[in-house]
Every structure is written in structure tokens, then in C-alpha cells.
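anyone else get weird line breaks when pasting these?? whatever heres mine. first is seq + C-alpha cells for prot A
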Amino acid sequence: MQMSAEVIIAIISICIVVTGLFLATMFSLLMIEEIDRKRQDSSLDSYFLFTRRGGLRTFREYRNSCPKGSLHIYSLAAYALAMIGVIGLVVCTIRGYQPLVVRITSPTDGATFSAPANITISANANISGRTVSRVDFFQGATLLGSSTTPPYSVTWSNVPAGNYSLTAKATDDRGTTTTSNAISIAVSAPGRIPPSVSGR
């Protein structure tokens, strides 16, 4: 089973989040434990990654006593690692849920033809990270034809005079569908001047 890039990014991001939160929690608990131990016995020798010092009573003093703030830095770095993972998940989610988009590119809205017309209807359809399975073309509720490969188009032949509303419906490889905005076209009777140029 081949995984998409979004799934791989999601898995890696989840691992980073879990690892980062685990390490950050561990370091934080070690810091708390060391503070507690220090308060109970300030004469203990070095125990973790830094040397104990006498007379420390507050978290700030204890943290500042660590060589270069080692444990504190490790904890912050671990939390930062978790945040990087969260950002990865957000990016993955945004990419993974980009909508399926389709629009008719030809003819243009308001186009006119003379009957009997042969009209090629074309559409653009795309979705990030997935595949468009097919695009269906409609006049009103009537299916005119379907196209499964780009550039998506069908030819509507011998169109009689009248006014028509065209839409395109795209379907992706998961069965998700979306419909384009409708465009209007006019087909005039033979020998008549199309409405869009009759006033010139």
C-alpha cells in the first residue's frame, strides 16, 4: 500500500510531537525532583547533568545554578521539538484538506452561438495530493458527457436555439464531488444575429 506524502508527514509529525512532549516532561520532572532533593539535603553530590550548590531555595536560583542552564535548556528544546511537530501536523492538515475545485473555462459566461451549434465545453479540475477521476458536464440537470483525462472537455453537438445553463461536476479518487458555478450561453436560430451583437 503506497502512502501519500501527507500521510507520511502526519506520521513523522505525530512521532515528533510524542517524542518532544515525552522528553520535555521527563526533563521537567527531573528538574522538580532535583529542586525537592536540594531543599531536603543541600550537601548531596552531583546527581544529574550539573553540580549541586549549597544554599539554593528557589526554582530560579536552582535553574541558574545549572552549568549553562543545561537541564532547563534541554526541557525548552524538547518542547520546541514538540511544537515543530505540531506545526508539521497543521501544515499536513491544511495540505491534506484542500478542496476539490472545478470551473468551466470554455465557453465563457454569456457566449452566443448560431444553431445548429457544435459547442466544446472545457473545464479545469484539480485537488492537492489526490487525483481527479472524472468531470461530468451538464446542461441544467441533463448530462451532456464525461471526461476522465485532462484537459477535461466534451462536445455538445447540434445544439438547437435557446438559452442554456452549463455546469461541470468533478469527482476525485475518494468519491468526493464538487460542482462549478453555472455559466449561461445563448444559441440563436439560423440566420438571426446573436443577442450579444444585435445592438451594435
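and prot B, same format (seq, then C-alpha cells)
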Amino acid sequence: MIKRIYSHFGWMITPVVVAGIVILSLLYLILWMELIGNFKLRTTTDFVAFYSAGWIARTEGKGNVYNLDYQRMVEERVSGNSMELDEVNPFVHPPFIVPILSHIVQSDYVLSYKNWALLMTILLTISALFLIFSLPHSSKMEYILLLLSSLLFFPGMVSILNGQDTAILLLGGSIWFYGMVKGKSRLAGLGLALTTIRPQISLILAFPFFFKYRRIWWWYCAGVAFLIVVSLLVLGTENILGFLRILTVSAGGEGYLINERAMVNLLGLLRNIFPNALPGGLRYLSWFSYLAAIVSVCLLWKRLNLSFENYISFAIVISIFFSPHLHYHDLELLLLPLFGIIRLIYLRAIDIGIPMALSMILLSLLLLINHMTPLAHIVPYLLMIFLPVFGIYLMMDSNKGQMTSS
């Protein structure tokens, strides 16, 4: 079916993709200029937490990075307003990125913001290249259009605008994806270790490898151990404990700009569907579901004879939806199952690159429109349903084709 559609309409897709890339680029540029030019906008994004961590590391010593009182002082200076402790946007990210922040952050907040955005854009580009190189051989035009449409995937832009570090998460996931499809266990495991920038996601993705392809699991453990050693050398034991303590701020869900209703996961969905329910009860349900998700992904990987491209659609969607803490920018990880689908179609000798580039451009436009309307995350949730379902369809269609040919 896919091949028939492309054979009829393929000639008109490339100009539409190019037009979509230009339109998205202009829209993102407008959003970026509006953000940087608006004092209130740029000082209320998540970057203020990264800035405070980098500035504290430079001026007060790396040992104070996770001290909320120090974070409040820096954020008050940036915003020009006094704030209560529970109004602080806390730095709840792993210690191994602190050395990077201490070099990126300068006294000039806007310049620091631009430097961070540039670094994250470079990492997003490297991630996209890993995904492109994971595909079977195709034309340069397909590769270029897929690369550009991947870079313009809307959650990545949200991450850049918000000053987040999601590019590091995607980089780890992309290296893992590349290592898996190329049969490079060491690279897959080390890439997976880099996803510990989001520990709650990393555990779901990594733990199944303890039961299958254990070589990847041990390389993952080696990579995590290396990051822990780096963190200890940078911050010391006491401040590693400080990082663990501040994680309870995120798990608590109240105050500190956590905003559970804005999350794109099970907890966010429950908080919006049942606004009068006890938040604590919903959090317990979310954590129970998270543990069940780990078990289900392990069983899925161990018991079912799925290709990695099929498996990743389930694994990524489950890790995102059941993560106890997840915001919009982390949806950038959905690029992995999208490229899993692209690989499955390519392996059937169908040049799908340009149509898929168009699909990602249209998807980004839909996500952008949905993000700017009061309709809460309808498109992301539909996408999370579509990816594994379409993966199943491709698997069944492939099995049907094999039975017919035999």
C-alpha cells in the first residue's frame, strides 16, 4: 500500500517538504526572537535553573550546586524579584553536566542562554546524524530532507526555547539506536548510559537488557559507573546525596514549579481527568504503574520475537507515558520509534525517506498548533498510540507478504 501511494504522488512531495522546512524554520526563528527579546519570558523558562547551577559552580563552588538557598539567590538576581523557597525552579539534573554548565554560563544571562541553545542544537544535529546513518543506503536528497525535518521536530524546539538539556537524552538514545541496528553492543550500551540524564526513562529502556543481550546491559552499567565517578570527582559524595535529596522535590509534585498538570504522561493525564482527586493518591498510582511498566517492557523484550525496530516503538512510548516525571520537551525521544518505522519500510525496498520527511514536518506543525491551543496534549497522546499500532501493522503486513511469497 505504501509503495502504491508513493508511486502515484512521489513527484509532488519534495517541493512540499522544502516549503514545510522553510515555514517551520521561520516560525521557530520568530518564537526564538520573541523569547530572547522578552525579559519575563526568558527569565521564567527552565534555563534559569541551569543558569543558577552553572553560576553557583563558578562563583560559590561546585559543592553548592544543589543548595536551594543558593539557587534562590541566583534566580532572584536574574528575575529581579524576591521569591519564596517553593517558588524556585530547582536544578534537578544529574551532576555530570555541571562542568559543562560552569563553562557555558557567564554573568550575561542572555549570552549564556544563547550559548546553551547553540550547544544543544549541535547535540541535536549529531543525534539526527546518528539516526540518518542508521538507515539503509539511500539518496543524498532523502538524507538531507530527513535530517532537516528531524532537526525541526517540534519537541526539540520546545527544549531549545525552554533552555532544557533534552538534546543529551536524544543523543544517548540515538547512539543506542545506531548501536543496536548496526550490531555494536558496546556503542549501544554506552549510548544507553547517557540517557541517565533522565534516570526514570533510562531504567525502563535499560533493564530489559539484563534478560536479553546482556552484553549491552554490562556496557550500560560501565557507562553509568563512569558517569557516577565523574560526578563524584566533580561534586563529592556529600553533594551526590544533595542531588538525590533534591530529586524528592520533583517526586513530591507540590510547589517548585513542578506543574504536574502540564506533564505529558499518565500522571498529567490523571491530574487533568480527575482534577478533584487527591494528588498524593494519583502519584502513588503513577509510581505503581511505572514499576509495572518496567516489568512489562522486560517481558515484551524477552518473550516476544520482535525486531528492535518493532520493539522500540513500545519501549519508548511506555517509558515516556509511564515516567513519573515528564514534560513536553522529552517527547523529542519519539524520533527513535519514528526512525524505527522508517527503517522497517526501507528494509522492504521502499524509498520512504521523502514521504517520511513530509510526515515529520506535518507532525511538527500539528504539535505546534496543539501546543498553542487549550486542547491539552491531544496530538502527543494520539502519536503515542499511533507509533506502536503502526509498528504492529508493518510487522503483520510483512508476515503476510512472506506467507504469500512462500
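btw re prot B: The radius of gyration is 21 Å. The CA atoms of residues 75 and 81 lie 8 Å apart.
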